[in-house]
Amino acid sequence: MLTSEKRSLIRFLVIYLTSTFILFSFASWIFYTSSKHHLLDTQQEILKYEIQKIKTTLRELHQSNSATLYYPYNPQIDSAIYDKDKNYIFGSSKNIHSLDYKEKNILYLQESIEPYYLGVAYLLVSQPINYLPIEKLQQNMLFFMFIAGLFFSILGYFLGRLFVAPMRQSLEKMNHFIQDTTHELNTPISIILTNIEMIETFGKCKENSSELERIEIASKTLSRIYDDLTYLNLNHQYHRHITLVNLSELLEERMLYFTVMANSKSLSIRLNISKNTIISIDKNDALRLIDNLISNAIKYNKQQGILEITLSREKLLVKDTGIGIKAKELGQIQQRFKRANKSEGGFGIGLHIVSQVCKNYAFKLNINSVENRGTEVEVKWEK
After folding, report:
1. What is the rounded distance in angstroms from the CA atom of residue 207 to the CA atom of residue 239?
2. Pick from 80, 150, 259, 299: most CB atoms within 10 A?
3. pTM, full prediction
4. In the predicted model, what is the mean pLDDT of the chain?
């Protein structure tokens, strides 16, 4: 899956799962609150039944006129009786001497009695809250939320794949087009460049040197575009052969290649190349890195501008005095097909290829640019 597809899929999943989680959590909270109140009401009903039982006993004792009085004990429920001034008369627990006494985690139920059987005006019953069914409810809710979360995550993933499917199809068509185009371009480009070299070597073409120079520039531009598109298409399948590459010599060779293009813009070239700068890299990757940095610096430079290239033991620095990049676009300029200036040519893949090469070798890529003043690209590696 390509980076753009992953980014779109992740964004879709974040929005989908976040909204689903919020809605599902709200519905679960309502269900849990309702179920919890139902469980507490069930325990409250037991207290109501106990109150009715004690009231019946008190009425029977009051009407019997018996000299023997007893208090109806229930070992599981505490109770107490009070007179009309709310003074404690008797009870099954010492913890509820006061009618207004309340303790956390205990259910209380109070009821007034009329007429006053045996002088009793108020009756209070209580019992500890039974948290076992509530804890069971919590466990069931957590298990249900886990299963539902897993289900919605899997569903969201497949919906996300369907969501990015049109993008994948478009990218596949584009990649096939690039592959077919590069294949068709290779042969004519090679023939043109070979014949130009033969004419320059054996021919006498001083009269048409400017026309031949323009043909050479166009041919080399096509050749570079072909190399970039091929690299872009085969990057993930490319088998890299890591060797010690003399970056100083390679850079000097590539500057000879780009001299004609730089001269067409009358650029002033400033080179500061340290001798024998050697790094471990695949040579084709090094070519892509150097070529794209230099070609961008030439393409987006101004007429009679400055192209400055510095190579040291730990970094490569390419500076130009061109059109620059807007500050708001600097963070996205490394994306594939992203072009900061659409008035210039190109496919918007140069800096993307540079960033991919840097990523493959853990190089640090820094891009600093000021609009209408120029761009500075720095690639750093470990010594």
Report:
1. 46
2. 80
3. 0.50
4. 80
